[in-house]
Amino acid sequence: MSVGGQSRTLEINGLVIGFSDNWGRTMRLDNKVAIVTGAASGIGRATALAMAREGARVVVADINLEGAVLVTDEIIALGREACAIKADIGQREQVNAMVAKTVEQYQRIDILVNNAAYIAFYWDTHFHEMDEEEWDRHINITFRGTLYCCKAVIPHMIAQRSGRIINVTSDAARLIQPKGQAMYAACKAAIAGISRCLAGELARYGILVNCVAPGTTETPGFLAQPSEIIEKVRQLSLLKKVGEPDDIANLVLFFASEEAKYITGQHWSVDGGASSF
Ligand SMILES: NC(=O)c1ccc[n+]([C@@H]2O[C@H](COP(=O)([O-])OP(=O)(O)OC[C@H]3O[C@@H](n4cnc5c(N)ncnc54)[C@H](O)[C@@H]3O)[C@@H](O)[C@H]2O)c1
């Protein structure tokens, strides 16, 4: 039997049978090049794996290179292509280097998933008590980091006359949040706002921009919260459970796929109905 990454042949008694790893199903992101930030963990990892399973070549970008390499190894074990890049999205030069390396490696960028964010919980701190340095960390990583990534990939997507940008926001962008989450919520709302404007600016180049807003999702980041908070948010969902990373990755994958070719400027929640009240 020969294994060629996405297709195989099997020889039985002189008869050569060819089949794809997906048993004839067309892969939804066949040969697309995708950058996923914050892909070493949680939602980013699930997204990178889901995209790779659908045939994308995935740049697994994260501030945590060791974690990114592990996810890359998982993708390669699936018979797909990926590379790990260390990039802190809050550092413009690192973002530019990430995009330059991607273009050098694959000559194009079809999909950007802005998933990385600054995640910190301060349940005891009112907004007015929070240090301004902490505001800056939210703004510089979550908001500016997303802007740096968009700014760096857009010229390549314009040159290709195609592209998908999917920004991972949060229900926090639209719903009142518990104490301590004001800056996180503000940055996610800012990303949603700029995403709509980018959708308007970039539609003429065939570039679609959408946001995915997770509700509470069971990731290493989320599990860092106190258990009583976890229980409280579980009860907020109509389905009385928190999401799994794959629940979010599935919508990101959809926005990246041909099935979503007529959808742009949208901000959809995946939250078990938590934002329906
Ligand atoms: N898990 C949830 O309940 C939830 C809910 C709403 C929104 N979100 C959003 O989903 C996204 C992913 O969250 P998660 O829960 O999977 O988190 P996570 O902590 O499990 O993973 C985040 C990843 O981002 C990486 N990262 C952190 N700072 C970075 C930086 N400056 N540059 C590059 N990479 C960086 C981390 O190393 C980690 O691998 C975030 O944007 C988060 O705001 C999560």
Written overview of the protein:
By secondary structure, the protein is an alpha/beta fold. The protein folds into two domains: 1-26, no CATH class; 31-276, NAD(P)-binding Rossmann-like Domain (Rossmann fold), CATH 3.40.50. The chain is built from eight helices and ten strands. The protein has helices at 42-53, 65-77, 92-106, 132-160, 182-202, 220-223, 227-236, 245-256; strands at residues 2-3, 7-12, 15-20, 33-37, 57-62, 82-86, 111-114, 163-168, 207-214, 267-270. The strands form two sheets. It has a seven-stranded parallel β-sheet, with helices on both faces. A three-stranded antiparallel β-sheet has the order 1-2-3, with no helix packed on it. β8, α5 (182-202) and β9 (207-214) form a beta-alpha-beta unit. α4 (132-160) runs parallel beside α5 (182-202). The longest helix is centred in the middle third of the chain and has 29 residues, at 132-160. It starts with a strand and ends in a 7-residue tail after the last strand. The relative contact order is 0.13. The model is unreliable at 1-7 (pLDDT under 50). Bound molecules: nicotinamide-adenine-dinucleotide. Nicotinamide-adenine-dinucleotide is lined by residues 37-38, 40-44, 62-64, 67, 87-90, 115-117, 119, 141, 145, 168, 170, 214, 216-217, 219-222.
Topology:
Elements: E1 2-3, E2 7-12, E3 15-20, E4 33-37, H1 42-53, E5 57-62, H2 65-77, E6 82-86, H3 92-106, E7 111-114, H4 132-160, E8 163-168, H5 182-202, E9 207-214, H6 220-223, H7 227-236, H8 245-256, E10 267-270
Parallel strand pairs: 4-5, 4-7, 5-6, 7-8, 8-9, 9-10
Antiparallel strand pairs: 1-2, 2-3
The protein binds nicotinamide-adenine-dinucleotide.
